[in-house]
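Researcher: I'd like a structural prediction for the single chain below. Treat it as a standalone chain; there are no partners to consider.
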Amino acid sequence: MPATTALRRTLAVIAALPLLTLAACGYGSEAKDDDTAEVAAGAEKIDGLDSIRIGYFGNITHATPLVGNQKGFFQKELGATEAKYATFNAGPSEIEALNSGSIDIGWIGPSPAINGYTKSGGKNLRIVGGSASGGVKLVVNPEKIKSLKDVKGKRIATPQLGNTQDVAFLNWIAEQGWKVDAQSGKGDVTVVRSDNKVTPDAYKAGDLDGAWVPEPTASKLVAQGGKVLLDESTLWPDDKFVITNIIVSQKFLEEHPKAVEAVLKASVDTNAWIKANPDEAKAAANRQLEKDTGKALPADVLDPAWASIQLTDDPLAATLDAQAAHAVKAGLLEKPDLRGIYDLTLLNKVLAAKGAPPVDDAGLGAK
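Model: Treating it as a single chain, here is the predicted structure.
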């Protein structure tokens, strides 16, 4: 199949399927609005804006916006400009919301950011900050799989064709010298594309031998007797790889840089507060999850999931570039031109004001 045909087919599938992320796929409701933010008396609007719409997933890998919403960090920085929120299940729907102007800025995984950027010819979004690293594991049935070599011949789930975890698993399979057809998932390992919401039930029913999945799905499987066979972070330099980034529409960035800077400052402040108050932050994130999704995570899932995620202001640009290369290698993506996908100017301004070192765009900054 020609590369362009493969790309069109993959992007069509990604757009049609119900769940996608780098990120990690969420447990939140589709575009669920939360317009209850309180504005401090006497505060001034930023850039004359009445409100800013912020998007994220109801997912523990989106801890920064969960806590920032719950604890009011975004509203504090935005003053009389009201922080409004929309939660999503799927990367494509968040990209669509960004393109339509339904949201202005959002937290999202690397695969939908890459796909959104390349599909628009580099005209719809910029990555302006980092948020989280890690939180992805290969969890298996310990009775069927006792070592990494035992994965061969087994049925292993990933969240969706072409999503971040799917690409990572296909790349790992190739590194073992095994063969799998990326589109069908058939080969030396059977890759089963399974919605994160149903994967735990499928595992419990014996339909899956394991899964390469983000948190909290990984910890849900462990709570059902699964065993962590591999933590993806161990495959990356310094044990770090991007799982969640901050994106903004290019139009909004150009017209309202002060507002974007305020959101980035709130994000940096939120991350610092989370690191200084881990237990209180974990509880705050779970309260917001319950508000957004209708269900909090139990302790035996929340605790290990929270511990496996590293918050970072650095978008870890080099790892996003590597993830794109893995997708190309798997035949799921035509080699993309990612130059210009990052604009870290405002983030580095915020970091400099706090005496922190700048972060790097790995040569993928604005053209």
